[in-house]
Design a protein that fits this description.
Pfam families: 7TMR-DISM_7TM (PF07695), 7TMR-DISMED2 (PF07696), HATPase_c (PF02518). The protein is of the alpha+beta class and about 650 residues long. It has three domains: about 160 residues, Immunoglobulin-like (Sandwich); about 220 residues; about 160 residues, Histidine kinase-like ATPase, C-terminal domain (Heat Shock Protein 90), CATH 3.30.565.10. The chain has 19 helices and 20 strands. α8 packs antiparallel against α9. The longest helix has about 80 residues. The radius of gyration is 59 Å and the shape is rod-shaped. The termini are far apart.
Length: about 650
C-alpha cells in the first residue's frame, strides 16, 4: 500500500510539473526570460496542428523548461511552447521572442470568448499585422475586458539550425521601447567595424598591400554573419537580401574564414617564419570550400555542425601558427596572438553553450560581437605594429644605403684625387723626361760632337806629321778637360738611359762611408788642385750605411762635379758626415760668388734645369741634378738644398746598417 501511494505521489508531482506556471503580469514584472515558467513539447514530424497539441497538453505530454532560456538544439523538429499568464496591468500584454533568426513562428493566443487568434512571423516568413518583426519578434496579445482570468499562449517555432529561445513578457508600461545595453553594445560593434573597414580600405588604396585588402574583405564578412544574421539586423535590408542571408549564412561565413586565413598567412609571412603551416592553411581553405558547398546545397543544419568543427580547428591552427611566427622573430605577431585568443574564447564559450554544457544568458549572444570587435581592433594594432616595423627596416635600409653611397662617393673622390695626383706626377715626369730628351739631342749634337771633332782634328794632324811632339803634348793637355767632360757626360747619359728604360731598383748593401768617399776623392784631386780650390773634408768618424753602393757613387760623383764646377778659384768645398737618430747625413757644400743672385727656388724645382757653365766656363749637360734626385729617391731619401751665406749645401740621409738590422 505504501509503494502504491508513493507511485501515485510521483505521478501527481510529474503532472503538476508538466503544467505551465501561471505568470502574473503587472507593471512591476521584471523584463526577464521565462524558460523555467513554461512547458514545451517536441514535434518531430513538424505536422501537429493546434488542436492536436492541445490534446497532448491535456494528456500531460508537455515537459517543463529546464533553464531560463530554452536550448532546443539543432534539429528539423518543431517545438510547441505553452505559456499561461494573467495580465494584471491596465494595458496590453506582449510576448517577445528575443531571437532574430527563427525561421518560422506561429503564435496562438486565446480570447475572452474562447476563440484563438493566430499570429505568423519568422526570418523566412512575412509577419502578421500584430507582430513587430525586427531583430526580435514582439507579439501584441489580445486584451480581455476584465483581465482577471488566466490566458494561454501556444507558440510554435521551427528552424533548421541551433535554436536557443529567450522568451519574455511585458506590459505596455514595461515594454522596453528604447535601446538596451545590448543594443548599445551592438551599435558599438557596428561602429568599430565601419571605422576599421574605412581606415584599412584607405590604407590599401594608398599602399596596395594585399594584407589590407584581405582585412577589408574579412571585416564585412564578419558583419554579415554576426550582425545581419546572428543579431538579426538583416531586417533593415530588402526582403530578398534578408532571405538570402538567413538561408545561406554559413556560405558567407565560409568566404569570411577564407579571407581571414589569407590575411593570417600574409601577416605572419609564413613562407619565412613558419613554412610548415602553409599546407595546413591550404587544408583549412579546402574545408571552407566544403562548408560553402554544403550551405549552398541547402543543408543548413549540417552546415551549422560543420561550422562548429571548422571554427574550432581554424582558430586553434591560426593561434598556434601565430605563436610559431612570434618565436621565429616576427614580433608583430604578439597582438595577433592576443586577438585570436579573444575570438577563440568567445567561440569556445558559444560552442560549449550550444552543447548544453553552459547555460544560455542574454549576453551569450553578445560574446561573438564583442570577441570579434576586440579581435579586429587587436589585428589592426598588429598591422600598425607591422607597418611601423617595416617602416623602421626600410628607414634603416635607406640609411645604410645612404651611408654606403656616401662612403662610395668619398672613396671615389679619394680615388679620383689619388689618380689625379698620380696623373699630375706622371705628366710632370713626362715633361721632365721630354725636356731631358731635348737636352740629350742637344748634348749629342753639340756638347759631345765638338770635343770629339777637336780630338779627331789633333789625330789627323798627327797622322800627317804636321805637329811636333811638343805641339802634340800641348794640344793634348789643352783637350784634357774636354775628355774629362766627355767621360762624365757619357756616364750620366748611360745612367739616364737606363732609368728611362726600366724602373730604378735599389739593391742595398752595407758599406763603410769614409773609405768609400776617400777613394772617390782621389779621382777629383787633380781637378781640385788645378783649379786652386781648397778642400774641407770632415770624415773623422766612419759610418756603416745600408744603401745601393752604385747609386751613392753616382750621387756623390755628380755632387762633387758640381761643387768643383761652380766654386771660384781660391775658395773651398767640403764634405761632412753627421749622424742622426738612425741615419747618417751626407752633405757636399761649396762657396759661390754673388749669393744674392743665387736662385735657390729654381735649383730646388725638379722641372727646371739645363746646361750651365762653371766659374771657368766648364759646361755640363744638365742631367746631374735629375739623376741625383732619382737615385736618392730610389734609396728612400730626399735631396735637401740650402743656402747659408755664401755657402750652398746639398745633403741627403742614408740609413745606418745597425738600424736596418733592428
Amino acid at each position: 500500500m505504501r509503494r502504491l501511494l508513493i507511485l501515485i505521489a510521483v505521478i501527481l508531482f510529474a503532472k503538476i510539473q508538466a503544467i505551465a506556471q501561471v505568470i502574473y503580469l503587472n507593471d512591476k514584472t521584471p523584463y526577464s526570460n521565462l524558460g523555467k515558467q513554461v512547458t514545451y513539447i517536441e514535434d518531430k514530424t513538424a505536422l501537429l496542428t493546434i488542436d492536436k497539441v492541445k490534446l497532448l497538453e491535456k494528456a500531460g505530454k508537455f515537459k517543463p523548461g529546464e533553464s531560463s532560456i530554452l536550448n532546443l538544439g539543432n534539429t528539423k523538429s518543431a517545438f510547441w511552447i505553452k505559456i499561461s499568464y494573467v495580465n494584471q496591468s491596465s494595458g496590453k500584454a506582449y510576448l517577445i521572442a528575443d531571437m532574430p533568426n527563427i525561421e518560422y513562428i506561429d503564435c496562438y493566443a486565446d480570447r475572452a470568448d474562447g476563440t484563438w487568434i493566430h499570429y505568423k512571423s519568422g526570418a523566412l516568413k512575412s509577419s502578421s499585422i500584430l507582430v513587430k518583426s525586427e531583430n526580435r519578434y514582439t507579439f501584441s496579445l489580445p486584451q480581455n475586458a476584465h483581465q482577471t482570468g488566466v490566458q494561454h499562449i501556444f507558440l510554435r517555432v521551427k528552424t533548421d539550425n541551433y535554436l536557443p529561445l529567450p522568451l519574455k513578457m511585458a506590459t505596455s508600461d514595461t515594454l522596453v521601447s528604447g535601446p538596451t545595453l545590448r543594443d548599445y553594445l551592438e551599435i558599438v560593434f557596428m561602429g568599430v567595424l565601419l571605422s576599421l573597414f574605412v581606415y584599412n580600405i584607405f590604407l590599401y588604396m594608398n599602399m596596395r598591400d594585399k594584407l589590407y585588402l584581405y582585412y577589408c574583405l574579412y571585416v564585412p564578412g564578419l558583419f554579415i554573419y554576426v550582425s545581419l544574421y546572428l543579431r538579426g539586423y538583416a531586417y533593415l535590408l530588402s526582403p530578398k537580401i534578408r532571405d538570402i542571408i538567413n538561408i545561406y549564412p554559413h556560405a558567407f561565413l565560409a568566404v569570411t574564414v577564407v579571407f581571414g586565413i589569407l590575411f593570417c598567412r600574409r601577416f605572419l609571412n609564413l613562407r619565412i617564419t613558419a613554412p610548415k603551416f602553409l599546407k595546413i592553411y591550404l587544408a583549412l581553405i579546402f574545408l571552407c570550400v566544403g562548408l560553402f558547398i554544403v550551405s549552398i546545397l541547402g543543408y543548413k543544419g549540417i552546415a551549422a555542425n560543420y561550422t562548429q568543427l571548422l571554427m574550432s580547428i581554424s582558430v586553434v591552427t591560426l593561434w598556434i601558427s601565430g605563436f610559431a611566427a612570434y618565436r621565429a622573430g616576427h614580433t608583430p605577431a604578439g597582438y595577433y596572438i592576443l586577438a585570436w585568443t579573444f575570438i577563440a574564447l568567445a567561440i569556445l564559450a558559444v560552442i560549449l553553450t550550444l552543447a548544453k554544457l553552459f547555460p544560455f544568458t542574454d549576453y551569450t549572444f553578445d560574446l561573438l560581437p564583442i570577441g570579434s570587435a576586440i579581435e579586429l581592433l587587436l589585428l589592426s594594432f598588429a598591422m600598425g605594429y607591422r607597418y611601423n616595423a617595416v617602416f623602421k627596416r626600410e628607414q634603416q635600409t635607406r640609411d645604410e644605403n645612404l651611408m654606403l653611397v656616401s662612403d662610395q662617393n668619398l672613396h671615389l673622390e679619394n680615388l679620383v684625387k689619388e689618380r689625379t695626383l698620380k696623373l699630375s706626377e706622371t705628366i710632370s715626369e713626362l715633361e721632365i723626361s721630354n725636356s731631358v730628351k731635348n737636352k740629350l739631342f742637344s748634348i749629342i749634337a753639340h756638347d759631345l760632337r765638338s770635343p770629339f771633332n777637336s780630338l779627331t782634328g789633333i789625330f789627323a794632324l798627327k797622322d800627317m806629321d804636321m805637329l811636333t811632339l811638343e805641339d802634340y803634348k800641348i794640344l793634348l793637355t789643352e783637350n784634357q778637360k774636354h775628355i774629362e767632360t766627355i767621360n762624365s757626360s757619357l756616364n750620366n747619359l748611360l745612367y739616364w738611359a737606363r732609368r728611362q728604360m726600366e724602373v730604378v731598383n735599389s739593391v742595398p748593401t752595407t758599406f763603410e762611408l769614409k773609405p768609400f768617399i776617400e777613394k772617390l776623392l782621389l779621382v777629383y784631386l787633380p781637378l781640385i788642385h788645378k783649379k786652386g780650390i781648397l778642400t774641407n773634408i770632415n770624415l773623422s768618424e766612419s759610418f756603416s750605411a745600408y744603401a745601393d753602393e752604385d747609386h751613392v757613387q753616382l750621387i756623390l760623383r755628380n755632387l762633387i762635379d758640381n761643387a768643383i764646377k761652380f766654386t771660384p778659384s781660391g775658395n773651398d768645398i767640403g764634405i761632412t758626415l753627421k749622424k742622426q737618430v738612425d741615419t747618417v747625413e751626407i752633405c757636399v757644400w761649396n762657396t759661390i760668388n754673388n749669393p744674392e743672385q743665387f736662385d735657390l727656388e729654381d735649383i730646388r724645382n725638379p722641372k727646371t734645369g739645363g746646361a750651365t757653365y762653371g766659374t771657368e766656363n766648364e759646361k755640363g749637360i744638365g742631367l746631374g741634378l735629375t739623376l741625383i734626385r732619382e737615385y736618392i729617391k730610389a734609396n728612400d731619401s730626399k735631396l735637401n738644398i740650402d743656402l747659408h751665406g755664401d755657402k750652398v749645401s746639398f745633403s741627403f740621409d742614408l740609413p745606418l746598417s745597425n738600424s736596418h738590422l733592428l
